[in-house]
Amino acid sequence: MKMCLMPAEARKSDFKKFYYLPENALGTRTRVYPFELKINAGARYVILKLTGETDWVFCDEMALIEGDGKSEDYNQAYKKAGISIPMKGLIIQPRLPELAFMSNIPAPQRFNVEDMRDKEERKKAASLVIELPEPVRLANVKECVSIKRGDQKYVRYTIPLKNLNSPTVYLAAGTVKDSYGTAYIYALSGDQKQPETSLPVRMVTAPLLEPFKRLHISLAWMSEGQAMNWPDFFTNWRKLGFNCVSTFPRYWNPDNYKDFAKFVENAHERNFKVIMNESPIHYMGEKQKAGSEIFCRHSDGEKRRNFCPSYRGTFFIAEMNRIARCVEMSRPDFVFFDIECWHNAFSTAPKCSRCIERQKKSGKNMEEYLYDCGSELMRELKAEIARGAAAAKINMPAVGCYDRQPLIPTYAINLFQRDYPKFIDMAQPSLYVGGRVREVHENIRANHKLMKNKQIIPWLTSGCYGEFDSYKIEFMVLEAFLNGAGGITYFEWINFTDSPLDFYYHVKALASLQPYEDLVADGEISELKGSNPDLTYSAIKKGNEMLLLVGNYSRGKPSTTIKLPFKPNVIKDLRENKIYEAVGETLTFMVEPENIRLFYFKGM
């Protein structure tokens, strides 16, 4: 399927699977683009089912073109049991075709809601019904009844749907056993049962973790409310390996202030770091209408909503004061900025009377002037963070900014070399790569070479810009840390609610690295390579210790031989938890397609 990207991710466009279509390319607010879906199957009838990653999906026209004849075995991959696609009623089901539980940690699960009822039926109250085989259960829903399905004991939960919003349930488990059977999910319209979905129940057990002391582990785009709704949040957050919590103080108000401030206090008492998640300038424009003084003054007189990089008036001053107040309220250890206002600045500023006037006074050309505006903004923001920290009597928080990195130093009107380390303390590359693990390897490795340090906290994701198999999260986390990252963060919480397996594979990666946290934090990135060029090699070394990660992401030949930098007396396969005898300084092993091997070596 195709994904349309936002401006901040435009460089990921390949016009095969990922597209960036500038909204202003034709000078209008709408446009049409002919996407082409290549389906390797012969068919008489085609059903196209769209399940959006966002709230808006539009499909105007679809054409089927007859292809060339193929061999008899052409359709073998499609000769399997079909799936049911209900065409009416109220349909509720998870995005993935199984219901996964972690035996030792309750984890969130959301459902897709498709309302295809007729007009009269839509007036009826709706409920979600989940029937689970004992002893699996929902941790955050108390009202339930015991039932039987055949000879097996089940528990039925009925959850009212308010405005058809998908509820978030927390899947939990009792005792661990090999098979739990089947879960059943359906809706009620009034008291009328709607089409039912049956799903196999899968059980995994997350490895136990101790708190990380040196590596940053966060899910920075997660609200206070989402955290507070998680049963026994701080205990379970620690089990998942996170050592930070996120806050959005720009949305604090008299109704939630005490609860959210208490949440921050509780986090600090439990030795969690606090992230202030902030989108300055965006927030300034939320209530402003087109033509407001904060937007560019276009010579044609048309009122548009293009943020003016030269504006420093009343609303800008208020915005800077707001940043200081948010720091004072939330008492953060980190401030992560997300500023995506200026992608059109180079086309709008030359038409803005305010920008033209300031540019002429600067004596610089428009390009250099706009880069000055970008650095000026970052300088102002850092000053306000310092002012808020002083008022709160806390240390100066570390500052990051979304997608700023030396590998791609130009981000709209910001240049990385001007902002780091004066105004920001780290690189934060955006790696929403749809499960393409090698891109994580290449980006972090290249940024580390340029920075020559590990002040890199990439934004990873479990589903933004394309859902992918959960197991790849483990690979991406390992690639980040073994190529020079000093931490990881994620966008966003809701992407983790497709399946608890997203959290499980995140924990699995961290559990492999935790005993070697100091080696990851202090070790040097090695250029170690093996004999097989189809594989991806990552190594980190300190003294006579080394971690080696080898991935077969392109489904290449599995065998490789590596000459080690020292003769080990300990060789441990960290994913299999096996210790091998030392066999000299050369090691030959297999890496199966779509898999990895992770080794720890210790020399004499």
Give a brief outline of the structure:
The two termini are 52 Å apart. The chain contains 13 helices and 31 strands.
Number of strands: 31
Radius of gyration using CA atoms only: 26 Å
Summing up helix and strand content along with how strands pair, one would put the structural category as alpha+beta
Helix content percent band: 10-25%
Could you list the spans in which at least 5 consecutive residues all have pLDDT below 50?
none
Total number of helical segments? 13
Distance between the termini: 52 Å
Shape: globular
Q: Give the strand content.
A: 15-25%
Total of domains: 5
| Largest sheet composition | 7 strands, mixed
The overall pLDDT, averaged over residues, is 91
